[in-house]
Structures are given as C-alpha cells and as structure tokens.
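for the writeup, i need someone to sanity check this before i put it in the appendix. the sequnce is what the collaborator sent (i think, or maybe the updated version? ugh). structure was predicted straight from it, no edits. if anything looks off just tell me and ill rerun, i have time this weekend
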Amino acid sequence: MKRYIVNIILFGFLLLPLILWLSWVIKPSTKANILIVDKTVLTQEAFEHRSFDWILTHQKYLKPDGDFYSLSEDYMGFFPLKNDSFLIKDLSKLADKQIDSLSSSLDMVYYTDTYGIYYNEWYRKKDLAEHSEKVYGGLDENDALLIQKMKEKKKLILAEFNFFATPTSTGEKVKTENLLGLKWSGWTGRYFEQLDTMKNPELPKWVVRLYREQHQNNWPFTKPGIVFIRTDETIAILEKETDLNFEVPIVKSFSYGINKFGIPKKIRYPYWFDITLSTDTNNRVISYYELSPNQRGDSILNHHSIPKIFPAAFEHIKDSPYYYFCGDFTDAPIRKTYDKLIGMQYLKMFVLNEYDLNDRTPFFWRYSLPFTSKILDNYLRK
C-alpha cells in the first residue's frame, strides 16, 4: 500500500511540469508593441533585461506580428557581436517626427538600463571592477523626447536604476526628472556580502580606491555592508555590526501596493539602488527602502545627508501612467527554462534560499514578478 502511494506521488511529481506547460499553452496571449531600451548588454545573455523578457514570455505577451519577444534581438541599445565588434541600434539618429510616430505605435516603453559599456570590460576583458572610458551609454535627447511623447499620449512608461545616473549628461537628466516629477539625489548604493578585499575579488576596485583616497589610505572593512557613492565620487560605507544592526536594505510596501500588485509587505533587496525623491504630488510611493543603522551608522548617514528610509518604487496616479523602480530590479539571475510553466512562481516559494542574504532570486519571484505582471495586465489587457 505504501509503495502504491509512493508511486502515485512520484507519478504526480513527474506529471506536474507537463500540467504547468499545458496550462501555459492554453493561456490566452496578448499582442502588445513594447519597446525595451537596454544600453548595458555586454553579452547575449542580456542580464539587464532578461527577467523582463522572461515575464513577457511567461505571461504570453506577443509582438504585433504574433511572435514572442526575443531576448537578444527585440530591444534598442547595445548589441554585442563577435571579435569585439558591436552594433548600436537606438533612437539617436531618428528625426523628431520619427520619434513622434514611434510613440504613437508603441503601447509601452521600459528603460531597463542606461549605464552602458566601458573600455575595460569590452576591449580588455579585464579590470572589470575598475572605471574606464565609456564606449556607449546614457540617455540622449531623443530618449528624453520619446519619454515626453509617450507621456503626452498617455502611454505606459517604466524605468529603473540607473535611468538618471552616470553617464547621462546633466541636461538630459534634468529633462527626464522634470518630465516624471522625480529628483535623483546623486546617491547610489549597493549591498556587498563581503567588503574584505582579500575575500571578495569582485568588489569594485574603484570603490576601494576612492575610499582610500578620502580616508588616509585606510580600508578597515572585513564584513558585509552597504556602499554609497555620490556623483562627486564621495564614498560612504556602513558595515555589519560596526554600523548596521542588519546589513541588507529591506524593501517595505504600503497596503495599497500589497493589495493592488500582490507584492510582499517586506523583502530583502541586496543589489544596486538609487536614492530618488518625488517633486510631483501625483507620484505615489508604492514601496520604500529601510536601512538598519546603529548609533554610529546613523552619524555616518547624517554626516552625508543620506536618509535611512527612502522610496523604492513610484507610481504616477494621474494622467499618463508611469512607474519608476529605484533599483536594478530587472537584473535577476533567472533561467529561461521555466518561462513556459504557469504557476512556477508558487513552486519556487518552496525552494528559495531565504538564508542567503546575497541571493537576488527571492526578490524577483516575490516582488518583481507579481509587480511587473500586474502593471502589464492593468494597462495592456484591458
């Protein structure tokens, strides 16, 4: 009898992927003209928009011609080719009338990353953790114009870190800030699971260099912590226990966002973020970051005028619909394998490693996936 039950359970377990796939097959599809802008595609893995492409396939959003969106082809920005060659396909050479026409044909645009590509990582394939000359990146005047036209036509706009930050020029930054009613503080930050340079070779060399230059060649850190960088290259660091009661920023959400988008009340976020505030009363804060500094950490934050609570996600609640995520939310280590299995997110809940503070996958499955999916459904499946 026990063996019979075990066989049933085993058969059900083996059959489950087929059931999930068939559920995806019968799910109705929706055609939508979506423009993805990603200027930081170092390889065809396209890490900076891969999770959004995953969501499009998973939710069965198709291009106007009926095909699925391609991770390596259906975006604008930097296209890596063989032998250090590349192709730039963006808005920079379009006339104003062409931008206006494009905005009319689009249903939405998502600026997933504008940081760009740099000399060391592209040509030298080394010193990836050190600053070098820009090859390509940043917003240009036609990007700002497209945002303006999309806003005028009340088309859906999504953008996220680092939309306003380096290497975008001050002029284009101010234009887009004014268009969206947002103001970047000049600060970006990131949690690092290890600040000991001997134990973490991937720690950006420029972070260590700048901190040493500003602190009598001193680098006292040996634990996890949060690094803050300002546009003038000022560095501030909070270390676990020394400055922080809990080392990872927590994203907390208000009841409105929990109910409307199905996002969790709180979740850890261990990656890049920016400190951006609103200048428009019609921008609603959906979620916010909360840091956990001790008394010493508080004094460091106060010295640099860095808040310990600041927005993580905005929704514009009047006229044109747009959202801004104050973090690198689409850069998630998600496998393409599961994009055609309906309900995969619920199974993932049982295997997520909640003890690995550096793991970004829980944030995708519990926050980014339901949030982005709900936004798309609200505006593209009316």
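The chain has one domain: 2-380. The longest helix spans residues 2-26.
thx in advance!!
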